[in-house]
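If you are new to this repository, start here. Below is one unmodified record pulled from the training split, so you can see the exact layout before writing a loader.
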Amino acid sequence: MLPHDDRSHRRIGMGCAVLAHTMWGLFPLYWRNLLMVDPLELTSHRVLWSFVLLSVLLPILLSLKVWGGWELFLKAVCTRRVLWIYAAAALMIAINWLSFVYAVTNGRILDASLGYYINPLLNVLLGVIFLRERLASSQWVAIGLAAIGVTVMTVAGGGLPWPALGMACSFAIYGLLKKQAPLPALLGLWLETAILAGPTLILLGMMERTSGTAFLAGTLSTQALLMFGGVITVAPLALFAIASHRVSLSTMGVLQYIGPTLQLLVGTLIAGETFGVWRIVGFVFVWTGILVYLSRMR
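And here is the target side for that same chain:
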């Protein structure tokens, strides 16, 4: 049996992991309250208010010597290679957030779900291509089944599920870049949103001058929802960071499917999106690939 402290440590980690993935899975319910906002403006506010929140919290934590204090952070941001890594990561996370928001606000939550289902398999594929990792035959089968599933949905639907592919590819590349990055997750996100903050403000200014923005023209509730987007972006990532040090990698690998499963339920049961026969067939291929992938982790 595990000592009491270890069991408590693990229970806290499991609770944080489940809560983080549940929040990610229920994100569509939040963003559906902002259907009147252009996806580009919505993503811009998500970046901006995440940066503001992190700029309030993280300096306090660094001053308390969390993550080694300011020394590690300043050493990282003064290194050109590290800055380029985080600049590329910032671009990828912006594409990911925009793809997700576009999917939710355009009645394509099922595409968002698909994107997060196939993302782990894309991570494995990128590991082969860029990190020279070797795959077992079962892992190749898993990737092949997912590819068949996406192909079925593409042919049946008359076009590629672009939001799903945009989310999956951008997040897979983001994960690959973060493997080369030295900072903890929240500090990394702070730097990424700092890099995006300037262009975001310029973009919002241009939108206000040309067509106006929902933030300035909207109601108090719209403004509050846009600002609170920073909180719901940062909170699950903070919970995930806590969990990653307390829960085994194999367990985290299984728990990551809570999010897309909840998104699938939200899309079909709440948003009323059609889960037709060919989409079901495509998802069955993807789910089978995931089961093959998870069986390898035992």
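Two things worth knowing about this chain: DSSP finds 13 helices and no strands in the chain. The chain has one domain: 4-296.
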